[in-house]
Amino acid sequence: MTIVILIFVHGLTGDYEQTWKAENAADPWPKSLLPSIITNARLLTFGYDANVIGKGQVSENGLREHAMALVNDLARVRNKTKTNERPIIFACHSLGGLLCKDALGYARDCLEERHRQINCCTRGIVFIGTPHHGSDLAPVARKLARYLGRFKQTNSAILDVLEKGSDTLSRIQRDFANMLRSRNEVSKDPSHLSPIEIVCFFEELPLDIVGTVVSKDSAIMPSSNAIGLHCNHIDMTKFDDKEDENFDRIAAELQEMCNKIAGDKTDKTDRTSLASHS
Q1: Contact 271, 42 (CB under 8 A)
Q2: Between the CA of residue 119 and those of 2, 15, 147, 171, what are the distances in Å?
Q3: With bands split at pLDDT 50, 70 and 90, how would you rate the model's confidence at 249?
Q4: Which of 30, 99, 108, 268 is the most exposed place for a label (fewest CB within 10 A)?
Q5: Residue 24 belongs to some domain of the structure
Q6: Is the pLDDT of residue 69 over 80?
Q7: What is the pLDDT of residues 197-244, one digit of tens each?
Q8: In total, how many domains does the chain have?
Q9: 75 within domain boundaries
Q10: Burial 82-121 (b: 16+ CB within 10 A, else e)
Q11: Neighbours of 80 (CB within 10 A)
Q12: Domain assignment of residue 127, given as a range
């Protein structure tokens, strides 16, 4: 019985499959490991061009364009499968967390109800190494891209949002904080939207050559549950074993969110497996 949509959003230089796949694994862990633990969720991955530096052409789309694509793609899938009122949980790595926050702001202000429902139905977000507080990450992003072997062309539209003092980052943070505050207010109004549960994971180990990509201070949101992962920024989303302690920490938080929703909602639909939308 599927009662929630769980969608994975990759980060900088990431990929809708490779970000969530260990080096020697046959499949991404949302497909190979998670379904036996979380049996009441439809698992989706969202892909977008997150290469900021590349040998060939790189997308010139900014974060807002990718956020709009996420909202449009997810709304289309929900409409097609008649699951427009299904609760949503996001799991986001790195830049994907900022994209998710911007997407929820965009969805909230949309004229189409099916787009607004994405904001209204969101019940939880797991941020994994997301740079919430905008220390000067653009140089780190360039180093990270070069570390991964990508160079020459640069998408400044993506890098700009990571700069300290970025107007775009400030807008995203301000809008998201206001939305959380409104959602988390105690209200007896039955139409009041449910709170959004937030969990933030931070990296405990540096990346070779690059160092720490997202500091603990930047990866944590005020009043959120903060959990360390004993790995670097890239490996914090790559697992091939259920016994991996880092996987267990993330899976446990996702499972807890799904269980809380299960206590509130019992709609009966068929369980489906991993799908990808880019």
Answers
A1: yes
A2: 19, 24, 36, 17
A3: very high
A4: 268
A5: yes
A6: yes
A7: 999 999 999 988 778 889 999 999 988 999 999 999 999 999 999 999
A8: 1
A9: yes
A10: ebeebbbbbbbbbbbbbbbbbbbbbbbebeeebbbbbbbb
A11: 9
A12: 17-131+156-222+232-261
